[in-house]
Amino acid sequence: MTQTHTDGAFHVFDTTLRDGAQMEGLRYSVADKLAVAELLDEFGVDYIEGGWPGAIPSDTEFFARAADELNFKHAKLVAFAMTRRAGTTAAEDPGFQALLDSRAPVLCLVAKSDVRHVEQALRTTPEENLAMIVDSVRHGREHDREVFIDCEHFFDGFRHDPVYATLVVRTALEAGAEAVVLCDTNGGRIPSDITEAITDLRERLAVDLAPERIRLGMHAQNDTGCAVANTLAAVQAGVMHVQGTANGYGERPGNADIFSVIANLETKLGMRVLPDGCLEKMTRISHAIAEIANLAPDEHAPYVGHAAFAHKAGIHASAIKADPALYNHVDPVVVGNDMRILVTEMAGRASVELKGRELGIDLSGDREALDRITKRVKELESKGWSFEAADASFELLVRDEVEGGLPRPFTLDTYRVIVDHDPAGHSVAEATVRLDVDGARVIATAQGNGPVNALDAALRKALSERHPKLASLALTDFKVRILAGSTGTDAVTRVLITMSDGGSEWTTVGAAPNLIEASWNALAEGLTYGLNRQ
Amino acid sequence: MTQTHTDGAFHVFDTTLRDGAQMEGLRYSVADKLAVAELLDEFGVDYIEGGWPGAIPSDTEFFARAADELNFKHAKLVAFAMTRRAGTTAAEDPGFQALLDSRAPVLCLVAKSDVRHVEQALRTTPEENLAMIVDSVRHGREHDREVFIDCEHFFDGFRHDPVYATLVVRTALEAGAEAVVLCDTNGGRIPSDITEAITDLRERLAVDLAPERIRLGMHAQNDTGCAVANTLAAVQAGVMHVQGTANGYGERPGNADIFSVIANLETKLGMRVLPDGCLEKMTRISHAIAEIANLAPDEHAPYVGHAAFAHKAGIHASAIKADPALYNHVDPVVVGNDMRILVTEMAGRASVELKGRELGIDLSGDREALDRITKRVKELESKGWSFEAADASFELLVRDEVEGGLPRPFTLDTYRVIVDHDPAGHSVAEATVRLDVDGARVIATAQGNGPVNALDAALRKALSERHPKLASLALTDFKVRILAGSTGTDAVTRVLITMSDGGSEWTTVGAAPNLIEASWNALAEGLTYGLNRQ
Q1: Which of A516, B153, B480, B534 has the most crowded CB, counting CB atoms within 10 A?
Q2: Which domain of life is it from (chains A, B) (predicted)?
Q3: Between the CA of residue A439 and those of A447, A464, B380, what are the distances in Å?
Q4: What is the C-alpha radius of gyration for chain B, rounded to an integer number of angstroms?
Q5: Where in chain A is the domain with CATH 3.20.20.70?
Q6: In what order do the strands lie in the sheet with A427-437?
């Protein structure tokens, strides 16, 4: 059932930079948008909708720079706008002229297909709405543009008045639209609705149109949690164009996640919708776009999440080892992701061995080391450590047992942290650390916003002379969790710290009844790991 | 097409505390689990799966305490385990005995339905697997338990060997299982797969079983991003039992989000699956469980997310105001959420008024106080406060604005917290507070396991003479979260503290870049509230 890549016959249409940019709290600079567009082209989508030139000044600038600076390998750039305004012509509409001025080779024009929106939002007649579509499509075609029509609120409109909604679609197709995209704008549909509506629509269109002229697309929003499934249902009902956004970014609960849509089309329906070799870039591209958007990648995202193929080993470790295909729904490598075995309190020797192999350490020949490591993991976990998310701490522990340990750039003698709240209501934190650094006694004091920030600053100050590389290690995430809620402020605290050297990231853990002590452990291990890594 | 609540005929089966607790990085204390179970019962689910007694020590403790302390209004508590081991009897299997000892009235037993897993993971024969199911179901029934069978990897097993997978389901139903739950354990299915498999299965079962005996359930994982849609497809194909977790928590990309599933069943398929008046609690229950799990609520979650009904007003503001139903796929009030228009600051006043009414304070007559409170809430929330789970802090704030405030038993002058780590590796925390207590200057110093514990001890010591009742107020929970959007150790920290006077509990909040300062705020408000309450 596997096909070859269907060039031109099926469209992957990305709207990360237009509809996806509507997400609350998300702001791209023009440079951000150029970088995202390049990533999307590298990923192999067919169309990249870049924004609304003429209406949004930074989008006008984006298209101007894109025309000069971007050189897509595969994709075509799309400019979005409304069909021309009521009571004028496309040639005379300044909004439409801005669209042509953008130099984008493809236009995507939003049109009303729900007669209630025609009357209440556009405040015009159903007939004029049709004339706006025809005139706009023809004007775009006359200027050598490919033109798509997005039918806003299509599914509500079709339910309310199927005759008019069908007329809108047919009119756009007959006027020369490349495809007409059916939008579930308010996102209220579930897959059975989509199947039913598209099947009905196709039958109505088939009265006047030859099958090859019925070119439909799907644009789903995620308000029922079904955007990906709705898009698949539409493809199975015959659409040949799917819209979505990177990581499902978008207004309200977001748009259909284009990564999940593509991975499902390719691995579940056996379609080839990307050029060869592109699907395996998916995890990397997803995370890179999240970084540009300045949003934490969703750890639990299907296919591309850090946890998407993470298994708690426990009792099934040996079975997973024997046949991972029984536990993964697809081979993670296909989408550029990895399988991970989580080391948990239930972990036995088998999962420690498996985890070691992931880190490139073969423990299969050293039964005694394996026993020591397993025992130590269990001991630490009973005290509140957790290695599930702290690969770097786990690796330090393993290397300590098998190779005598990584070199330690420093050992702690003492630290003192003071937090003062003064009568004026200001608080300040100060930390002093006394370390042994390669045999020398070093003392440093620093202030910070809070106690851990001060400790981090003092530690870096103490090490900066001997380890100038330290300046390139950034602390990127700091998580605190209180364990065993029943015992209040004297409960055990677990701290997870993530550091980055710009290229890769690693996470360390510390646990203690004293939050400062737990933070110290995670900080010290994070810097030790980072300095050894370089 | 709307029905009345189908008591008993349709099951909502929640597995937040069992399968959902497998989520990477998530750890509940026993007290957390008891609190989540109470919320789920209040929400009106039919079954609450609490864990695996006998296998996980904290789950054993949860069931013991649940039997003594929980008094469900609607739900039944479910204990999870495997069917009995191969080569023994259920009566002789100590794992099975632990299940009965849990005193849970309902058992959910996981069984293999994929013959490859029977052989490779269980390492037994297909026949013994069937015997294990029959023996386990009967033994549970003989001890007056309702028994469910979860068929692990059902959809893979059915595709690989439909005859054996069907035999497993039929065997379990014939042995007396209340329902057999079809699990997409590795989460690799899309809705059309589910429809096809369940339709085929039902035809195969109908050969031997009367229609009313074919009682099936659905358990979906979200690895294709289709867990909610798969669950809906299963209901449309005839299952009468759905499993899911609060907010979709679970391993890898998680489980079917029970909130989205229920909202779709009720508002899209016209079913009544919750008792009357429960659906509108959904948003609040979702956020409260997120707080207990110490995970940020997903702003973009369908139905319950803060952004689920947020509209950028833009050009359509007046159209939205005239007829919100054209822009919202359901009325947000139905699920206890609000519509928000992002450009206005109008949102909030209505919910502050509603919240005040909940606390017994009528704000409807005092427009100015309502405005002051709303403004103050927004101000504090922009600095990291969150009142969703901190009713006591909210009440203090409201009473300050309408009645001149509750009496303050003390005001802070200064505090100092010192944490020392000595050369022997021991760490100690010491706090000194200087307060004004009813006009008198009081100073007290105390030690603790960590900085917040020391601060708590010093504060209590300073107040103990004037407020002896303080001894009866216990600090029962302490949660710390580093807020997203800010990075590293200088990010904003939010602290939630729960206190109890033995009878009732209350929660307060503090937020600041300095963790100690945030903790102080929450501590001071918690004691102030507690002393006023008595």
Answers
A1: A516
A2: Bacteria
A3: 26, 16, 49
A4: 26
A5: 79-281
A6: A440-448, A427-437, A411-421, B411-421, B427-437, B440-448
Do the Cβ atoms of B333 and B280 come closer than 8 Å?
yes
Tokens representing A10 are 């099926």
Contact B245, B26 (CB under 8 A): no
Q: What is the dihedral of CA A462, A464, A469, A471, to 10 degrees?
A: 90
Contacting A residues, span 404-463, partner chain B, CB-CB under 8 Å: 412-423, 427, 429, 448-453, 456
Concatenated DSSP letters for B175-219? Answer: HT-SEEEEEETT----HHHHHHHHHHHHHHHHTTS-GGG--EEEE
DSSP codes, A353-369: HHHHHHTT---TT-HHH
Distance from CA of B62 to the nearest CA of A (A): 13
| Angstrom distances, CA of residue B183 to CA of A444, B110, B123, B268, B436 | 57, 10, 21, 24, 61
Q: Please give the sequence-ordered ranges of beta strands (E in DSSP) within A438-473, or none if there are none.
A: 440-448
* Chain B hits for A484, Cβ within 8 Å: 29
Interface with chain B: mutation pick from A117, A119, A421, highest number of B CBs within 10 Å = A421
Q: Rounded to the nearest 5°, which phi and psi values hold at B300?
A: -105, 15
CB contact under 8 A, A252 and B307: yes
Instruction: Enter the tokens of residue B385.
Output: 């406060």
Measured distance CA(A130)–CA(A111) in Å, rounded: 9
Q: Does B527 touch chain A (CB under 8 A)?
A: no
B321 touching A (Cβ < 8 Å): no
Please list every residue in chain B whose beta carbon sits closer than 8 Å to the beta carbon of residue A52: none
- The confidence band for B359, taking pLDDT boundaries of 50, 70 and 90, is confident
CATH superfamily of domain region A79-281 = Aldolase class I (3.20.20.70)
pLDDT given for residue B377 in this prediction? 83
For B237-295, where are the alpha helices, taking DSSP H only? 258-267, 282-293
Which secondary-structure segment (H or E) carries A196?
helix A191-206
Q: Is B520 on the interface with A (CB under 8 A)?
A: yes
> Does any CB of chain B come closer than 8 Å to the CB of residue A386?
yes
Residue-wise pLDDT tens digits, B415-434: 999 999 999 989 999 999 99
Residues 172-211 of A with CB under 8 A from B: 186-193
Q: Is the dihedral of CA A77, A83, A84, A85 positive or negative?
A: negative
3 state SS of A274: coil
Architecture per CATH, B11-293:
Alpha-Beta Barrel (3.20)
Query: Which two tokens mark B416?
Result: 């100092």
Asked whether the beta carbons of B179 and B172 are under 8 A apart, the reply is no
Indicate the residue of A186, A414, A520 with minimum beta-carbon distance to B422: A414
Cα(A68)–Cα(A103) distance, integer angstroms: 10
**pLDDT tens-digit map of A282-317:** 998 998 888 778 677 898 999 999 899 988 755 566
Residues 6+ apart with CB under 8 A from A470: A460, A463, A464, A527, A530, A531
Q: What is the pLDDT of residue A3?
A: 43
| Cα nearest neighbour of B190 on chain A | A229
With beta carbons under 8 A apart, name residues in chain A contacting B263. Answer: 224
* Per-residue DSSP letter, B91: G
Contact flag B482-A477 (C-beta cutoff 8 Å): yes
From-to residues of CATH 3.20.20.70 in chain B: 11-293
**For the residues A359-377, what does the mean pLDDT come to?**
84
Closest chain B residue by Cα to residue A118:
B319
Chain B residues 249-288 with a CB less than 8 Å from chain A? 251-254, 257, 260, 263-264, 268-269
> Cβ distance A259 to A247 under 8 Å?
yes
Closest chain B residue to the Cα of A386, Cα to Cα: B25
Prediction ipTM score: 0.77
Contact call for A450 and B479, based on CB within 8 A: no
